[in-house]
Each structure stands twice: as C-alpha cells, then as structure tokens.
C-alpha cells in the first residue's frame, strides 16, 4: 500500500492530538484515502521530556532533520507564535510539502504570503484549525459560499472568554474565580491575556477577513476590548432584562470599507449567539443568497483542533488524487 509520510512540528496539546488521531484512525484513513499515513518525524523543544511516541518515529529538536526525511509529503504545524513557525513552513513549502497549520497568530500575519508561495510550488495549505477549532468555518466560507456575497460576520471565537462569562452569570462568580476555574480545567493558560483581552479572537478574525474579503482592515484601527472589566452587577442587570453579554468578534463590509471589532456585546434571546455557552465557538454569517447561517461547536482542545487538522489533511490528499485522475 502507498505510504504518505508526514511530520508534526510541536508536540503540545494540539500536536499530540494530531499524532493520536492518526494512530487511532489509521484504518479509517486507509479506507478513505487508500494509503497508509505514517508519522515519520516530530519536532520538539525538549528531548528529555517523556512522550508517548513510537520508537520508529524520528524525534528531534532540529528542523533540518525533519526537512531531510526522505519523501516527506505533509507537515502538520502546531507551534505557538509567529517565529520560527513561518520560517519552518516556508522552507517546507520549498521542499514541496503540503501544510496543515493551527497557528492563528502566524497565519493572520503571514497567511497570504504562504498561500502565494504554496501556489507557486503546487502544494496546498489547510488552516481550518486556526480559527474555531472543530467548527468548519474556513471550508464553509471557501467552498460552500463561493457565489454568495458576505456582508457581515459575528462570532464567538474564544472559548475561554465565553466560558468565563457563562460561569459568572450562571454561578454568580467573580471574574477572578471564573478565570481560576477555567485555568484549573485547562481552558485558560497561566497567562490568559490573549484570551480574555480579545487578542486571540482578533487574530482569528483577521484570518476570516482575508478569506472572506480578500484583505484585512488596518490592524491599528480594529477596536479590541476584553472582558475583565465586566462586573457581576452588569451581568446580573443584563440577565434580569433577558440579555447576555457575549465576547463578539465582528466584521462588516460596506462598499470598499472593512470594519472590525472584538468587544463585549449585549445580545437578546433572538440573537444567534445568545445561547452559545461554555467553551463553544460560533460564527454567524450574513450572505446575500443563503441568508443568515450559524455554525457552532467546540472551539478548542485536543480533539476538536486535531479533528480540524486531520479533515484538512484528508481534503488535501483527496483533492490531489482527483486532480491527478483528471490530468
């Protein structure tokens, strides 16, 4: 049976999730793709840390070792931050490897450059996991709404802030206590600034803007407001009046102008985001033909994010097989 060799860059929660998903779904992948998927290498930071990786897999701290894997075809990237992720993926594309990434900060900044480079090398990039975990918003926009003109997107793009607001309202907890629970459950990092400050949602929103409108607004003009200033009194008053605060990321296209914001917004019971609770993400798309569409699901975590990356991988391989068959 034909073998597809893949490598994973980063072996934190997401990278480990991709590895486990491929190992446990090998038969399904073979049935769907007609090939064996082999993880040939894993790039890590600390060789001393114990990891559950098969002995035959190359485990290295040197990216050159990954690039030198014979017949490497796919790179899964799950590193945090812009650098060295962009450099690694750029080099992998030069080696004619297809790319699947979950790195929202890097892709918001360099996605357009990577996509153009991939086109010149006739390779593909999957980035579903950069925006809303297991919620298939990228493929929906790219494939299911090609004729539609999208005028507005409203979304909950950060499960941590949504969880905190839900806990504060339902359990009458202080912001600090709700944040502590989120950290204990693994929903929030030790430094939660990106989540509660709205920056995580901002990067995801910029990726959606590039995909939907072909460009991003000026980053300096985007209003970014976090949730830490919301008080229990504000949430209780809203609740008594049948409103709920949601941390909403919004894009609006009017003529040639794109406006964007991330901020707490009061929603009523008729709003599509009103009942999106806990760590769920949701995206509301207003399109001229399809009308208003809402897609909701788990926005983060090992399995949802790994699911998005594996589905991207399957789509890439299937599309390549189709193009070969038609050529």
Task: Describe the fold and architecture.
With 327 residues, the protein is α/β, with parallel strands linked by helices. The chain is built from twelve helices and twelve strands. The protein has helices spanning 13-24, 26-33, 63-67, 85-94, 104-120, 137-144, 159-171, 175-184, 193-196, 199-213, 232-240, 302-326, and strands at residues 3-9, 36-43, 58-60, 72-77, 98-101, 125-126, 150-156, 223-224, 243-254, 257-268, 280-287, 291-298. The protein is globular and about 60 Å long. The mean pLDDT is 94.
Write the layout of secondary structure elements.
Elements: E1 3-9, H1 13-24, H2 26-33, E2 36-43, E3 58-60, H3 63-67, E4 72-77, H4 85-94, E5 98-101, H5 104-120, E6 125-126, H6 137-144, E7 150-156, H7 159-171, H8 175-184, H9 193-196, H10 199-213, E8 223-224, H11 232-240, E9 243-254, E10 257-268, E11 280-287, E12 291-298, H12 302-326
Parallel strand pairs: 1-2, 1-4, 2-3, 4-5, 5-6, 8-10
Antiparallel strand pairs: 7-9, 7-11, 9-10, 11-12
Helix pairs in contact: 1-12, 4-5, 5-10, 7-8
Main beta sheet strand tally, sense and closure: 6 strands, parallel
Give, in order, the helices and strands: EHHEEHEHEHEHEHHHHEHEEEEH
Q: Can you tell me the residue ranges where pLDDT is under 50 for at least 5 consecutive residues? A: none
Give the overall shape, derived from the CA principal axes. globular
N/C terminus separation: 22 Å
Report the mean per-residue pLDDT as an integer.
Answer: 94
As for the CATH topology of the largest domain, it is Dihydrodipicolinate Reductase, domain 2
- Residues in helix, %: 40-55%
Figure out the total of helices: 12
CATH architecture title of the largest domain? 2-Layer Sandwich
Assembly context of the chains: single chain
Order of strands in the sheet with the most strands?
3-2-1-4-5-6
Looking at CATH, the homologous superfamily of the largest domain is Dihydrodipicolinate Reductase, domain 2
Q: How much of the polypeptide forms β-strand, as a percent range?
A: 15-25%
Number of domains: 2
For this structure, what is the CATH class of the largest domain?
Alpha Beta
Instruction: Give the class from helix and strand content and strand pairing.
Output: alpha/beta
